[in-house]
Design a protein that fits this description.
Helices cover 22% and strands 26% of the residues. The chain is an alpha/beta fold. Strands 1-4-5-3-2 form a 5-stranded mixed beta sheet, with helices on one face. The protein has one domain: Translation Initiation Factor IF3.
């Protein structure tokens, strides 16, 4: 697991990211799967923002990205969005971010 230190203190509502369980172990299927592989920032972030507008509070989004800049930008941007990064999963060639919309 990689640390996503933004240099700023996170609000108390944010939990540290943890390793995501295998997809068959997850009780809920993500509400949306966003495949941003092959795109460069800010496209993964823009797709995440758009998907968050379509989701209701409590729904989970799964974002797959392979742009190295996304590894730093996604967690940083979530501090300003109505969402929380609660897990990451390294798939080798790309990362999967599991995001919970909370309001």
């Amino acid at each position: 697991m990689t640390s996503f230190d933004t240099g700023r203190a996170r609000p108390a509502i944010f939990l540290p990211a943890s390793k995501a369980p295998a997809s068959d172990a997850v009780g809920k299927v993500p509400a949306l799967h966003i495949d941003a592989r092959g795109t460069r920032c800010p496209t993964p972030l823009l797709r995440l923002r758009k998907a968050l507008r379509r989701c209701e509070p409590g729904q989970v989004l799964e974002l797959a990205a392979d742009d190295p800049a996304a590894f730093a930008e996604i967690p940083r941007a979530l501090a300003e969005l109505p969402a929380q990064l609660f897990a990451t999963r390294d798939e080798g060639a790309y990362w999967v971010f599991l995001v919970l919309r909370y309001r």
